[in-house]
Amino acid sequence: MAKESPSQLRQTLSSTFRFRFWLDFGRIQSFGWFIKGVALRLFVPKHEVPKESFNAAAKRFKLSDEDIAKRAKRLRRLSFFMIFLAVLMVCYSIYQFNHGGTIGASISLLIMFIPIALAFRYHFWHYQLKQRKLGCTFKEWFKQGLLGGKVK
Question: What is the reported pLDDT for 150?
Fold first, then answer.
C-alpha cells in the first residue's frame, strides 16, 4: 500500500476542512480594509486645507473683541461644567459598584467619556479664542492651555 504524499494529504484536508470558508475570510479581510481606510481618513492629516486667519474669521462673523472675550469665558465655564458632570458620573459609578451594580457602574464609566470629550472640545475652543489663533495643535493646547508652560 502506497503512502500518500503530503500534497495529497493537504489537498484532502483542505477540501474537507474549509476554514477560510467557515470563517468567512473574505468578509473579515474586506472589513479590515474598511477599518484601515477609516483610520487613515481620521488620523492622517490633510494638507490642502486653506487656512483662515483669526482676524479674517472674526471679521466674517462680525465679532468684536468684547464678543470674543464673552464667548471665551462662556466656553471655559462650559468646559468646567462638563468636568463637573464627569466627576458626578464617576461618583455615581462608584456608588453603583459598591451596591453590586457592576453593569451599571461600567455603563456609567463609559457614559462619563461624553462629558470629558465635550470638556476637551470647549476648552480647546476657549484656548483658540484666548490665543486669537485658529488651527492650534494639540501640543500647543496641552503645554500652554492646560499646563501653562511654553511650547518649544
Answer: 63
